[in-house]
């Protein structure tokens, strides 16, 4: 068994040059020369742009998906092949180019303005921070965003220092964070696997994670917090293998990153606490068993510091965090266990969508391939565990969280958490895969196949499959107006109605559907209600009789004076399924037209703004039971 | 010492210029990078020490990426500190705060790691610069491929609060028709009023000429009003004011008539 690409625990820290053993000394093939790689990337980007044009015009989804992947593979395959040569300098530039290529599809999706649900929330938060000069502004799209000012604060700082627009400033921050994530993986893998080639390969594998191309590149707090998360681990790993000033400085910088992470995103902080707790426990256990230090103190300080900062933040700044997060955990576990006995609960994985069958097939195949790689790694490592540092093993083991998380996709509440876990768990997968690839490359060549081509085929399958496992079609592709999507239901009409209402009435409280709400909050700064079982604001349009007296009294007391209706909700069912969130009584159905027509007859609603599709009603529930003099 | 002074001076100059009305291009490409990357470079030297000629290249990835990481951390730390001390998060606060942190890091790096060494081999940046230009051009080209989407629509709104009226008196309902994406039709729209479902003859209709709009993104607007006799019976009345022939272009009002 070959173990030369991984270190015995007693090896000196950060000895360079082990990459040489895995470096391909042949000159790069013509198609992986830098001019060819950059040229292919540029052409690939243009082809991706063409796929978005085709998507915006509608038409056969197979064509736009095919063109998209033609462009992406044209761009990504040559640079990946170049990285795989093991040349240290080429690997650095290659990872940078891969970072660009995994950022560009989302950037081209909506280059000039927010389009994703969370983007509206963070963009509005940044606008409000800039206009008021203070952090912690209330946010009615994602209320918890108020307590995590990392994204809005950074955006505000960049906007003030550069003079760019708020959106461009946010993109600059996100792009920087995106690149930092990949280079953190490079450093982490280089430190843990003691090979520069391993660093670049791990970055390539990490770039395949299902959240990398669309989810973590959206303008939201995850994308920034993940960068801090990765660097905490990278700097912690460096500190654990260093001594003197280097150890102190790396640890101090890691703790600063902890502060950045905690102030930016709750869920990333939670994953960080869990992972650092696991690493610290395993390292401490190894120390107890075999009396080898392996940086135990560093990991304990990092874990303790993270817990301290996170607890202090939640207790003194972000108190609603626990209330916000608890439904995702309790609810998803409940739904997942319920699915064992019922067939109709939960979501249908790979439900009917424009996604072509071949991409869905690769989506199903991808976890299998990753699973086989992990299984091979387990078999390779099982007899030499004691030769490996405990923190490396802990990080690799963390990658196995990916597999149960795939199951949580089946539960509606768990899907969000599962999607968010991939950016973290794939770090472990990246370490495992980089180890296996290097190990495989060191074996004697097999006569009847080219290993490079097999690896490239696996790369393509996992890339296509994982992107398919990420966000849905309307999030990935632009398109004609489609009611019931966060992205393609956005209209200039809703935007200008929001601005007009804000101009005439101020930042008033409004009842509206979940899609129009994004526009009203983002562009009008309006305060939109979040319907729930306890506050079923959807009764205004989703029931034939309108609101109950109790709900009317609650809305009046809470100051909800306006209702905004998009009449397209009566033309077709929502793409997502509901118009007012999970408590909507008409899930899967279009709102009956009569429900909307009734609003023009009731005494408590006055239509004060109207366009072809949108109507704004001023509500006066004091007139709930008032007789209409004219008998209308 | 001279090199450290040059770094410190560049930070001070960047702070001062950031407070002046300097063009966005200069701020984005020069002032902002100077402010945050000098801080980042100094922090990297604190962690890794100053690189010496002939030194190994094991930390090259860190030397390139740590400054960028710190460039992300410093502005975040500054805005959080501004919030803690109740200082407005605005240009002076952020620029001076970031500059102060950068100067602290420059000083600390000088004490701990000695004077900085300047990067060598500028010729090696030519290739990446060309790549950036090529890829930037490709991204711009790809973005330009999207067909421009212009939504043309009009918006009718009630220009004042919901009216109240004395029975039998004349009620005036002002309205505004705003055009988006394309100009409003030239001819004055027909304005109709229905009270309790019965069409009434307006006392007066004004539909001023189309003029420029103050609304964001609007092409033009037409302001007008319609006056009609309020019902004689006190109570709440259904009043519909239609502007033009489009079925959607109707304001549905609840007119409260008092005796």
From TrEMBL, chain A:
Record region (Disordered): 1-28
Source taxon at top rank: Bacteria
Record has tRNA processing as a keyword: no
Record-given protein name: Glycosyltransferase RgtA/B/C/D-like domain-containing protein
Transmembrane segments: 34-55, 67-84, 90-108, 164-185, 220-240, 252-285, 297-318, 362-381, 393-411, 423-440, 452-471
Keywords tagged on the record: Membrane, Transmembrane, Transmembrane helix
Species of the source: Actinokineospora spheciospongiae
UniProtKB/TrEMBL annotation, chain B:
Keywords assigned by UniProt, alphabetized: Membrane, Transmembrane, Transmembrane helix
Transmembrane segments: 28-48, 68-87, 93-113, 125-145
Protein name, UniProt field: DUF1616 domain-containing protein
Lineage, broadest ranks: Bacteria, Bacillati, Actinomycetota, Actinomycetes, Pseudonocardiales
């Amino acid at each position: 068994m070959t173990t030369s690409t991984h270190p015995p625990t007693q090896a000196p820290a950060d000895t360079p040059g082990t990459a040489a053993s895995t470096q391909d000394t042949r000159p790069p093939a013509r198609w992986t020369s830098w001019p060819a790689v950059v040229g292919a990337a540029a052409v690939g980007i243009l082809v991706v742009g063409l796929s978005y044009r085709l998507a915006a015009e509608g038409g056969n989804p197979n064509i736009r998906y095919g063109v998209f992947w033609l462009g992406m593979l044209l761009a990504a395959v040559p640079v990946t092949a170049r990285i795989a040569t093991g040349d240290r300098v080429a690997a650095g530039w290659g990872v940078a180019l891969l970072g660009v290529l995994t950022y560009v599809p989302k950037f081209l999706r909506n280059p000039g303005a927010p389009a994703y649900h969370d983007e509206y929330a963070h963009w509005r938060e940044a606008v409000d921070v800039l206009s008021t000069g203070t952090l912690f502004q209330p946010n009615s799209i994602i209320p918890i965003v108020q307590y995590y000012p990392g994204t809005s604060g950074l955006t505000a700082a960049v906007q003030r220092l550069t003079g760019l627009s708020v959106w461009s400033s946010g993109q600059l921050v996100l792009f920087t964070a995106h690149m930092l994530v990949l280079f953190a993986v490079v450093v982490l893998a280089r430190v843990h696997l003691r090979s520069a080639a391993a660093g670049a390969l791990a970055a390539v594998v990490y770039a395949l994670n299902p959240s990398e191309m669309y989810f973590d590149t959206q303008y939201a707090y995850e994308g920034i917090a993940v960068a801090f998360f990765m660097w905490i681990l990278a700097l912690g790993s460096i500190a654990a293998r260093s001594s003197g000033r280097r150890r102190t400085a790396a640890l101090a910088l890691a703790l600063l990153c902890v502060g950045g992470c905690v102030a930016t995103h709750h869920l990333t902080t939670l994953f960080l606490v869990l992972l650092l707790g696991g690493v610290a426990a395993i390292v401490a256990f190894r120390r107890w068993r075999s009396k080898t230090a392996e940086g135990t103190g560093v990991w304990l300080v990092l874990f303790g510091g993270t817990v301290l900062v996170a607890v202090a933040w939640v207790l003194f700044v972000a108190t609603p965090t626990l209330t916000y997060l608890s439904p995702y955990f309790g609810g998803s576990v409940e739904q997942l266990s319920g699915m064992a006995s019922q067939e109709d609960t939960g979501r249908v994985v790979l439900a009917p969508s424009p996604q072509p069958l071949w991409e869905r097939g690769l989506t199903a195949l991808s976890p299998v391939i990753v699973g086989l790689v992990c299984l091979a790694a387990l078999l390779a490592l099982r007899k030499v565990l004691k030769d490996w540092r405990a923190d490396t093993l802990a990080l690799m083991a963390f990658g196995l969280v990916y597999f149960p998380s795939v199951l949580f996709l089946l539960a509606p509440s768990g899907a969000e958490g599962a999607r968010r876990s991939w950016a973290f768990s794939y770090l472990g997968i990246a370490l495992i895969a980089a180890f296996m690839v290097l190990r495989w490359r060191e074996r004697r060549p097999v006569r009847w196949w080219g290993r490079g081509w097999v690896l490239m085929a696996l790369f393509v399958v996992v890339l296509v499959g994982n992107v398919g496992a990420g966000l849905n079609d309307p999030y990935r592709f632009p398109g004609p107006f489609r009611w019931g999507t966060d992205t393609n239901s956005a209209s200039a009409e809703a935007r200008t109605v929001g601005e007009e209402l804000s101009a005439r009435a101020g930042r008033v409280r409004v009842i509206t559907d979940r899609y129009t709400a994004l526009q009203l909050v983002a562009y009008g700064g309006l305060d939109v209600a979040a319907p729930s079982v306890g506050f079923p604001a959807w009764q205004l349009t989703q029931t034939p009789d309108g609101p109950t007296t109790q709900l009317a009294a609650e809305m009046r007391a809470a100051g909800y004076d306006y209702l905004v209706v998009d009449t397209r909700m009566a033309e077709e069912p929502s793409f997502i399924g509901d118009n007012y969130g999970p408590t909507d009584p008409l899930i899967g159905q279009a709102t009956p037209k009569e429900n909307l027509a009734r609003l023009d007859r009731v005494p408590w609603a006055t239509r004060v703004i109207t366009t072809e599709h949108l109507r704004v009603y001023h509500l006066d529930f004091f007139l709930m039971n008032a007789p209409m003099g004219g008998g209308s | 010492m001279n090199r450290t002074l040059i770094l410190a001076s560049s930070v001070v100059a960047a702070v001062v210029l950031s407070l002046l009305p300097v063009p966005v291009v200069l701020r984005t490409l020069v002032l902002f990078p100077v402010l945050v990357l000098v801080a980042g470079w100094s922090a990297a030297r604190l962690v890794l020490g100053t690189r010496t000629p002939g030194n190994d290249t094991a930390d090259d990835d860190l030397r390139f990426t740590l400054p960028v990481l710190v460039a992300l951390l410093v502005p975040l730390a500054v805005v959080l500190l501004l919030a803690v001390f109740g200082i407005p998060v605005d240009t002076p606060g952020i620029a001076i705060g970031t500059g102060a942190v950068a100067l602290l890091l420059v000083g600390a790096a000088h004490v701990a790691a000695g004077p900085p060494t300047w990067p060598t081999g500028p010729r090696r940046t030519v290739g990446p610069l060309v790549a950036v230009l090529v890829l930037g051009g490709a991204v711009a080209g790809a973005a330009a491929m999207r067909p421009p989407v212009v939504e043309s629509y009009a918006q009718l709104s009630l220009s004042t609060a919901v009216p109240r009226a004395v029975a039998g008196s004349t009620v005036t309902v002002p309205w505004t028709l705003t055009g988006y994406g394309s100009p409003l039709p030239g001819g004055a729209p027909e304005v109709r009023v229905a009270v309790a479902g019965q069409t009434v003859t307006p006392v007066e209709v004004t539909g001023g000429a189309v003029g420029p709009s103050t609304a964001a993104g609007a092409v033009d607007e037409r302001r007008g009003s319609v006056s009609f006799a309020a019902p004689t019976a006190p109570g709440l009345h259904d009043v519909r004011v239609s502007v033009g022939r489009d079925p959607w272009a109707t304001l549905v009002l609840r007119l409260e008539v008092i005796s």
